[in-house]
User: What shape does this take?
Amino acid sequence: MRKDYIKEQKARHARTVLAVLPIQYPKELLTAMDVLAVELWGPPGKVRGPGAGRLQAYVCAVARNAVAFVQAGGTKDVDGFLYPHACDSIQGLATLIPNFGGAGDKPALHYLNPKGEARPSSRRFLVAELRDLADKIARITGKPLAPERLTWAISLHRDIDALRLRLLEGRARLDLSDRALYDVLRRGEWLWPEDHLSELKEAVTGLAEGGAVKPKGVGLLFSGIVPEPMTIFDELADMGAYVAADDYAAVGRRVVKKPLVLKDDPLETLAWLMFAHPPCPTRATSLATRLTYLDRLVHRSGAVGVVIHTVKFCEPELFDVAGIKSHFGAQNVGVLFLESELEGELSGQTVTRLEAFVEMVAQRRKS
Ligand code: SF4
Assistant: This one.
């Protein structure tokens, strides 16, 4: 499907296609420059080739699977790669993938999101970083960035964010299973943004005005890197639970909730947007800021438990786990820590742990 879509985007729209490694990157800039971003979250499931063995076993599956996928020729239809500096693993892939083969001599672009809270110096750095990235993309596409296209792209992505937010915050009123909702949301990882927007518009028609569509059961906050395996949502539904609030880096943490602040230069507006994203340990947000944000998610959504569902060996995520556990533990909100290796489906042991957790928080809610 993605291969056909990529081919169609190239043939019909003459778009350049970049394979983009996780996590946060200035998608608006790519859209403005007619570049289709196809994100590479592993991919999940069966490892696509022997290349994963080139990395140590204690490197996360997102990085290991990506090496295997590229080496096995999975990215032969793209025109280049973008490596956002989410963590040391992704930064390392920027040199390892070209060396290991499979990527040919396709350009490897880098993007460094400043770490920590916004400061005048980090804003200046980011604007320069965005300008540099735009210049490098222009060398691939042969077309320089047009400021009015960037203004248009920023507006388009704000429309997308607004609908994604309505869907995520309106879970209790949405006549759609978690699995179906996440299928729609995650198609934004590779669809051209206008196509994604059309699908989101269709999905929000399932939002019932006022009141719940039907009782959805035990609401939980899910936090982690990427919701894989997606079968977790099927299992959850079978247990009478649902995702009341989302803090996945691949989903909710990429939805800007603050009203847009327009600057004179659209690159500065974009820099503002990058800092306006929800807290994420891959950007070294302080734990205190993150806990305040998660508290708000729990209380607004009515979630009765927190599931930290992260990728095994993900260092940035692990930084905050102890703090999140003790913070919610002190409020008597249950916390479950699950690790995934992007396997095709949940193990029986994980299903049992999730089931026991759902029962426990449901009991606590009654008592
Ligand atoms: S899962 Fe964590 S360690 Fe792995 S690539 Fe993503 S942010 Fe980096």
User: Anything to note?
Assistant: The mean pLDDT is 94. The pocket of iron/sulfur cluster is lined by residues 22, 60, 62-63, 86-87, 89-90, 225, 282, 311, 314-317 (CB under 6 Å).
